[in-house]
Amino acid sequence: LLCPCLIYGAYIFLPFDAPLLPTVSARLVYTLRCATFATFPIVLGMIVSGISRLCSSALEPFGELHREVEIHRTYVSQSVHLFILYFFNMAVLATYLPQELLKLIPLLTGLFAISRLIFWMSYAIGRSFRAFGFSMTFLPLLAMLLWNLYGMFVLEPENLLS
After folding, report:
1. What pLDDT, on a 0 to 100 scale, did the predictor assign at position 160?
2. How confident is the model at residue 53 (pLDDT cuts 50, 70, 90)?
3. What residue ranges carry the coiled-coil annotation (predicted)?
4. Coil, strand or helix: which one is 15?
5. Measured distance between the N- and C-terminal CA atoms of the chain, rounded to whole angstroms
6. pLDDT band at 135 (very low <50, low <70, confident <90, very high)
7. By three-state DSSP, how is residue 6 classified?
C-alpha cells in the first residue's frame, strides 16, 4: 500500500514535468537516462562489497565468505537481476504511456533506487527484515509488467509484433 501512495504523492506534489517526447526513440533515450540513476545503489553495493572483501580476515580469497562479505555480494547480485527486469519493463512502459504520464518514469526510477537501499540496510540488520525493501522493489515491477501486458494484448494488439 505504501508504493502507490508514494508514487501518487510524488506525482501530484513534485514540481517537474517530463519533457515533450513525441517519438518512441526519444522516450527510450529518456528512459535510458533515468535508468542510469537506478544503478547508483548497485555501484555503491559493488564498492562496499569490494571494500568489505579487502577488509575481511579471510586468508584465502576464494574460500568461504564471512557474513559481512556475503551480505553485500548477495545484495549486488540480486540488485543486478532486478535492475535488468526494471529496465526492460520501464522501456516497454515508456512506449505505451501517454505524454502526460511520462513523469512516472523518473518517479519509478527513484522508487527503485530508494527501495534497493532500504532492502540493503534491512538485509544487513537481519534476514527477516528484508521483506519490506524487497516488496517495495518487486511490487512496482509486477505492476509495470501487468500494465505492459495489458497494453500489448488489450490496448494495442495490432502493434504487438511491429
Report:
1. 64
2. confident
3. none
4. coil
5. 36
6. confident
7. helix
Amino acid in position 27: R
Residue with cell 516497454: 92
Phi-psi region of 2 (alpha: psi -120 to 50; beta: other; left: phi over 0): alpha
Closest to 6 measured CA to CA, from 139, 131, 119, 124:
139
User: Distance between CA 155 and CA 75 in Å, rounded?
Assistant: 37
Query: CB–CB of 147/93 below 8 Å?
Result: yes
Measured in degrees and rounded to the nearest 5, phi and psi for residue 160 equal -60, -45
- Report the range out of 10-19, 58-67, 135-144 with the highest average pLDDT: 135-144
Residues in the chain, overall count: 162
**Complete domains list, the chain, with CATH:** 23-157 (1.20.120)
8 A C-beta contact, residue 31 and residue 94: yes
